[in-house]
Specification:
207 residues, mainly alpha, 7 helices
């Protein structure tokens, strides 16, 4: 015969079972929500990674563009040195490429350490070029004027060699080139034109 205590115990057991079922259901829903949150976080991380990679490519491409614009600006600057002995070089000592190269480590950081090192070497060679120009311009008609002009021409060619070296450090598929796919020859572009009379040659012919 069922006693009142058995009924009460059975009722309490049923309540406990219902509460356990409710707790398990809540836990299942929480775990489901956590799974959704983790999936959303994974999607967000993937998108952030893709955005970071895109930004790195943009900075890399910007640095490459800066390098080639700088190189061609220097080619234009060096043409000012296509002068005969005893003629001053109308150089722009504060030309934009020189300003950019003063911050070479920052500007070319997206291209890696080798390019940074090479760009800083270009900056040093360019400073040397302007020092040679300044020395020549101080007394272009002096006894050593022709020698100093030859030093100017040698310095500009050396900058061209350094530009070529830096360009070759850029992956082939990312380099700027001529329309026919040929690499720029900055050594040739930065040098005096073929057949241009250099200082010592002109001085010798005058004698």
């Amino acid at each position: 015969m069922t006693t009142w205590s058995d009924v009460v115990f059975g009722g309490l057991t049923l309540v406990v079972l219902v509460l356990q079922w409710w707790v398990f259901r809540r836990q299942a829903k929480l775990m489901e929500r956590q799974g959704e949150i983790m999936s959303a976080q994974q999607v967000t991380l993937t998108e952030q990674r893709a955005l970071a990679e895109q930004q790195m490519r943009w900075r890399r491409d910007e640095a490459i563009g800066t390098f080639y614009r700088l190189a061609h600006d220097l080619v234009t600057e060096f043409r000012k040195a296509n002068v005969l002995p005893m003629t001053k070089v109308a150089a722009d000592f504060n030309t934009h490429p020189r300003q950019v190269l003063r911050e070479a480590s920052r500007v070319f950081a997206p291209l890696g350490n080798d390019v940074i090192f090479s760009a800083n070497e270009i900056a040093m060679r360019l400073d040397q070029y302007f020092a040679e120009v300044e020395a020549y311009n101080s007394d272009p008609r002096g006894r050593d004027g022709a020698d100093r002009l030859m030093a100017v021409q040698g310095s500009r060619e050396q900058v061209g060699r350094n530009l070529d070296r830096a360009s070759r450090l850029i992956p082939n598929e990312l380099r700027w080139k001529y329309a026919d796919g040929k690499d720029y020859d900055f050594r040739a572009l930065c040098s005096p034109p073929p057949g241009f009379p250099l200082g010592l040659e002109t001085e010798a012919s005058a004698e």
